[in-house]
Amino acid sequence: MGMKNSTVSLKRILLENFKNVKKGEISLVRKVENGACIVGIYGQNGSGKTAIIEAMSLLKHCLLGYPMDPTITNYFASCINVDSESARLEFEFAIEDVEAETNYKVVYCFTLKKEDSNRNTKLIICNEKISYSSKNKDTATKFVDYVDTDSEAPFVPKSKYDTLIGKDKNKKTALLVAKKMAEANTASFIFSKEMHDAIQFEETNSILERLANYGARELFVIRTASTGRITLNDMPIHISLDHNVDHKSGSLLLPLNRPNTVAPHILQILERTISSLNIVLPQIVPNLKVGLKHLGQELMQNGMPGHIVQMTSSKDGHEFPLAMESDGVKKIISILSLLIDVYNNHSITVAIDELDSGIFEYLLGEILRIISEKGKGQLLFTSHNLRPLETLDKNFIVFTTTNPENRYIRFSGVKTTNNLRDFYYRDIILGEQSEPVYETTNNSEIALAFKIAGGSNGS
After folding, report:
1. Which residue of 186, 251, 273, 313 lies most exposed, with the fewest beta carbons within 10 A?
2. How many CB atoms lie within 10 A of CB 233?
3. 82 has pLDDT over 80
4. pLDDT of the residue at 292
5. How far is CA 185 from CA 66, 86, 148, 228, in A?
6. Class in CATH terms, 1-218+345-459
7. Rounded CA separation 90/25 (Å)
């Protein structure tokens, strides 16, 4: 059973002992059934906003089934809460299979553990579990665990294992080896190639395949490490291969301060992406367009011909290297194709840390208003700029609290006539919600601390 004509929506995120979140849960809501789903996460510094984006990054990593890059393993190992030996992440999805007229509720969860050996920290993804229920016009199945890797066997429940693997000892051995390899490589076992091969003719596998495809082509996570590269004139540009039902996307990292050599098929995709950007970009930054300057051809390392190109920007008929634009403009260009995808595709989920960084606040609010009113996909973002509180529906805004056991809340008691920005400021001072949203700071103590620090520096 395939799921070619199907959509995936993220419905809920649960974090336990991840970074400074002992427990925190966010549900993702749409105002209208096929409309956009926005989650703007607000709160003071160090209150758990970025934890959601990092959790999304780990979700994407698991769905891809690849080994984790050793350069980031230590960072994610440090994301396990200092008071805990492990962290647990849980994600709920809704999959709508249009052709089969079947809806699935799918929950995927996993645990992060670290092992210290020979002064090296090893991060393990373990206790993975996939549970789901299905519903169509005739029948409904109850919500049960289908694959649970928290066992000595490759996975349980035993009834499911026996159905899929049977008494085949070679398959069992191969799966046990794959499970150990996944642990060693900080990879997902459920989404590994070996697991896929073992259960490829099952309904469960169609669900796993659809989620893997979602992770590879429809889920995008922009961490600050990614947007930070813009300052170094390395621009991540997100490319859409098409806008059809079988939507395909990817990303390229293009150095802006020197020419790049790209393969002919990449050149075609880049030109199509830039053409798409230039429909929207002049409406956001008046008169600005981006281009691709062709500087010739040369042989690539694989012996195939490549095209030498450099990204440019043009305004009022003058063309310059894109590297000369401000970081804010470069950031808008970098994420714009993703925002176009969110606007046009129901099955796209984009998570961006510090979306407001470098973007004029009025423009930020208006872009988010347009996506929330007319878009189709899902956008999660963190921000310090409060302008979106005035342009987005109150259900699209989540606030961090000072309680690590209940880290995320939506405000209650907000009337349609209330300005959510003013309401938030008032709650910081008065604390009228179920949880406090601001750890109080004292201005006179801050001033005294500045004075003492200045004295200790000998100034």
Report:
1. 251
2. 17
3. yes
4. 93
5. 8, 17, 19, 27
6. alpha beta
7. 9
Q: What does the alpha-carbon distance between residue 377 and residue 206 come to, in Å, rounded to a whole number? A: 22
Residue 364 burial (C-beta neighbours within 10 Å; 0-12, 13-18, 19+): buried
Grouping H, G, I as helix, E, B as strand and the rest as coil, residue 453 is helix
Residue with tokens 């872009």: 367
Beta carbons of 41 and 49 less than 8 angstroms apart:
yes
Q: Give the pair of three-digit tokens for residue 390.
A: 């005035």
pTM metric for this prediction: 0.92
According to the 3-state scheme, what is the secondary structure of 339-402?
HHHHHHCCCCEEEECCCCCCCCHHHHHHHHHHHHHHCCCEEEEECCCCCHHHHCCHHHEEEECC
Closest C-alpha among 142, 32, 119, 121 to residue 79: 121
pLDDT surpasses 50 at 244 = no
Cis amide leading into 70 (omega within 30): no
Residue whose pair of structure tokens reads 């390395």 in the numeric block: 234
Sequence letter at residue 131: S
Burial class (CB in 10 A: 0-12, 13-18, 19+), 28: buried
Question: Whats the size of the chain, residue-wise?
Answer: 459
